[in-house]
Amino acid sequence: MPDGHAIFDDRLALGDISRGGLVSEGDWFAQSESAARTRFVNQIVDQRNDIIGGVNLKRDSWHAAGLSELNGQSVERAHLVYLRGQGTTIPETLIVKRLRHAALLMLPWCLLIAAWHAVAVSGLVNQGLMPTPAQVGSKLTSLLFGDRLAIDILRSTQRVTLGVLLGILLAVPVGFLIGWYRSARTFLDPLINFFRALPPIALIPLVVVYFGIDEPAKVIILFYASFFAGVIVMYEGVAQISPIFIKVARTLGASDREIFFKVIVPLTMPHILTALRVALGVAWATLVASELVAAQQGLGALIQSAGSFFQIDVIYVGIVCIGTVALSMDLALRALTRRLIRWQDRVEAQ
What sign for the dihedral angle of Cα 17, 21, 23, 24? Predict the structure, then answer.
């Protein structure tokens, strides 16, 4: 692992620190060149020494700060790690940023719950048809700790996970195949688009006939939904790879095997993870349909059973649980994506 001095020496030589936002370039050009250059260098040296101290003080701060590539945001995180390690008060601007980020995360949920409560108590809808958030929360607690809800969540999560994994394991090589070889794309593309248009719920009668009503039938429906969602993302990802990377690799003497594993696979890794996220969302959306197949346990079965007995609050509980588990898995995949493709440049509005 390179040390902090080497990192900053390279970046300072390239002039990237000014673009990272440590020093305002507007102020640099506002005064005479010699005086501005002197002040610029002095500020950079001071800030550089502070942050280098933090990076070298704790080697694990490299990973904590995400310093795979040094830029303005990485420097800010490194500085924060350094300040915490020294027991120094964190600058107010960083605290404000964290609070603002937390507020932006919580605000839509608060607005949604407030709107839900307002509609439920306004009389616009019969109170027997729309329970309040407090009633749904109370029912959720009673089912979670006193009934079968925990088992239903576990069963549905197992089915979705297995269906998505099987679907992506097949979607990735098929996506590579039709994206890389024109003849394979000509042969398979019409079939994939034909079956992709078929809703999984339409196949339930055939699935029951061929696979019965046991667990494999439910997983096959989720596999079907996940595969066709993932294969399209993979195909588009492979097809968008710039030929210049392949030509450069061949010019440098790389074999087809080396090009595939050292060029194609890294370039398509973001698309593989995106395909996984898309397939996961589609699988959770298909869950209720898959558990129409004589399921006794699962969130879809819970919703269907509650609908039969007109238990509206239980239906809301099932919907909330599906959304919460799906969101949790998606957030985990986002974190994994940020870690695996930290090298990828992203453009975001400030």
Answer: positive
- Tokens describing residue 253: 């003497």
Total number of residues shown for the chain: 350
Distance, in Å, from the CA atom of 215 to the CA atom of 293, rounded to the nearest integer, reads 9
Intervals of the chain under pLDDT 50:
1-25, 27-32, 54-72, 347-350
Torsion of Cα atoms, 334 then 335 then 340 then 346, to 10°:
60
The tokens describing 116, both together, are 């839900």
| One-letter amino acid for residue 48 of the chain | R
Exposure string (b/e) for 288-320, b if CB count within 10 Å is 16 or more?
A: bbbbbbebebbbbbbbbbbeeeebbbbbbbbeb
- The CA-atom distances, in angstroms, between 292 and each of 225, 280, 288, 304 are 15, 19, 6, 8
Decide if 100 is inside a domain. Answer: no
Q: Where are the alpha helices (DSSP H) in 200-242?
A: 204-211, 215-239
Residue 286 and residue 158 in one domain:
yes
Residue 325: CB atoms within 10 Å: 18
Q: What's phi and psi for 252, nearest 5 deg?
A: -85, 5
Tell me whether residue 21 is exposed, middle or buried, using C-beta atoms within 10 angstroms of its C-beta: 0 to 12, 13 to 18, 19 or more. middle
125 part of a folded domain: no
pTM of the model: 0.68
Question: What digits encode the pLDDT tens for the residues 230-262?
Answer: 998 888 888 888 888 888 888 888 887 888 888
Count of beta carbons in the 10 Å neighbourhood of residue 239? 13
Look at residues 65, 58, 28 and name the one whose alpha carbon lies nearest to residue 43.
Answer: 28
Whole-angstrom Cα distance, residue 288 to residue 300?
4
Domain that holds residue 80: 4-90
Distance CA 136, CA 325 (A): 17
Residues 216 and 290 placed together within one structural domain of the fold? yes
